[in-house]
Amino acid sequence: MQVRVWRGKADGAFQAFEVPRHASQTVLDAVTHIQRVLDPTLAYRFACRVGMCGSCAMTVNGVPRWTCRTHVDKVVKNDRMELAPLRNLPVIRDLVTDMSGFFDKWAKAKGRFSGSRTRNDDFQKIEPDSSGRIAVDAGIECIGCAVCYSACDVVAARPDYLGPAALNRAWTLVQDERDTRTLERLRAVAGDAGCHSCHTHMSCTERCPKGISPTAGIAGLKRKVSLALLRNTL
Ligand code: SF4
Ligand code: SF4
Ligand code: FES
Fold this sequence. Notes:
The chain is of the alpha+beta class and 234 residues long. It is 37% helix and 13% strand.
């Protein structure tokens, strides 16, 4: 097949390579073949190869995907494939983007757990069928791949928008009974660049490889923020 790969920075261009097909080949396998056999200067990022680390995401034929779990058979068109870096993130080189802005937004959304117990206390027990636990479980498996962030048109239109992954993280913490910073977190996501900027396009939910619905979490945050405003507690 012919694989066109983005080379250089934002002002770069596509370069074409001929890559042999084989059974069960993933998109990451094709990129690895190019780097190992055809051009060792190609820059790309991966770590686990099994869908856990979130580092291998790229734009494949115009769609953001995790490439280690995407089979070529699923995406190749007329024996051609086009690979580009993720949208909405600065390009460092070739297929590698700068993820710092993406993770800075997790910090802005207060995405860090803050409990009240010390190592000397017993574990806080959360009932498996409690509504908070169910909501947390639905969003907790995020691997930080930025596929949703790259798919979001609101991030493209206003770069300060916190985006689906950071807001999903904030939602899981707001739902976590053990966390002590709910109000602070709601304040952090209530601003102009927070949950109310989401247009509910659902692209993040459609694209998330882990089956998470950031859209649902963001809707939950909107409800929580609105209630807190009505109660004058924010
Ligand atoms: S639902 Fe909201 S966060 Fe998700 S892609 Fe659409 S605008 Fe972005
Ligand atoms: S919510 Fe899904 S798409 Fe977004 S960073 Fe997490 S795992 Fe990736
Ligand atoms: S290489 Fe880790 S998720 Fe793809």
